Amino acid sequence: MHGDAATIAPARKRLKPFQLSIILGCGIGVFTLVSGIVPMITGWESDSPVHREVFGGIPGPLKLAFYTVIPMMLIWGSLRFADRIRNWERGAPDDRRTTTKNVKRRLADFRAGVYMRTLLRDSAAGLMHSMIYFGFLVLLGVTTVLEIDHQMPPALKFLHGDVYRGYALVGDVAGVVFTAGVVWAILRRYVQRPYRIRIKSKPEHAWILGVLLAIGVSGFGTEMFRIAAEQASGKNVDYERWSVIGWPLAQTVNGLSLDTLQQWHQGWWVFHVITFIAFLALLPITMLRHIFTSPLNMYLRDRERPKGCDACDAEPCRDVS
């Protein structure tokens, strides 16, 4: 009897959700750190006349600070998310496994969470949130694409020529959509003040909207002085006309000296990075976390229930996730 028991293999320990949060956050943080180190070693630059120099005009110490603070914030955020997940795990176990029977329904629910279909029931609120949400996602994608291109050897770089022109256009249009959505949200919450919003307003809403607005404005400010400084240095940057917001703004300051433009560019860049750091700080501890939790909650809301629950809809059986 004892011999048989000894031969039984111990149960394999599975990673818990909060551990996955930490692993994912640490992985992204390390990747960001490495993405800053690699270009310093390789020195790979594009030889195309139509491209953007990453961190052009930004001193080395500021770049070092960027690739130090951002990974730290990403790891810190994953730890805060892990704390919250631990709290969720204190509840009673529930069968929410993805199976061949529910996978199609779950994916549909997940898409509904990503597309915020519940908000779209109110057309104005839905459009406003969509402008902010999808505008931000496109801007995040634009930044990620620039960083990926930054890591590539010259023969594999793709962000140049017409590709870069299209990239600049998409980035500026997304910035306008995102910033306009934030301004609309501010006016709706603090000027129009409909009753259902007024009674739910919290101080954190002002912080969130202020940080999001600062991200949009500082992004265009950085772009404006970057383009103007490149023009003042004698570089032909006519291709930046595809930056449909940054280019016109740059023309309003192109009479300033090169030193002044470079100083303003660095100042706006630092401000832009600080606003993003503030966003990362608010993300796991405010309602901003619903960017991630809402689609996940929609995905997991479908669970195995005893037969008859759908018919009786009794309180103990009702899915209240």
Write a structural description.
- There is one protein chain.
- This protein has 321 residues and is mainly α.
- The model is unreliable at 305-321 (pLDDT under 50).
- It has a domain at 120-301: Fumarate Reductase Cytochrome B subunit.
- The chain is built from twelve helices and no strands.
Characterize the largest beta sheet: strand count, sense, and whether it forms a barrel: none
Mind telling me the CATH class of the domain at 120-301?
Answer: Mainly Alpha
The SSE string, one letter per element, is HHHHHHHHHHHH
How many separate helices? 12
Keywords summarizing the entry:
321 residues, mainly alpha, Fumarate Reductase Cytochrome B subunit, 12 helices
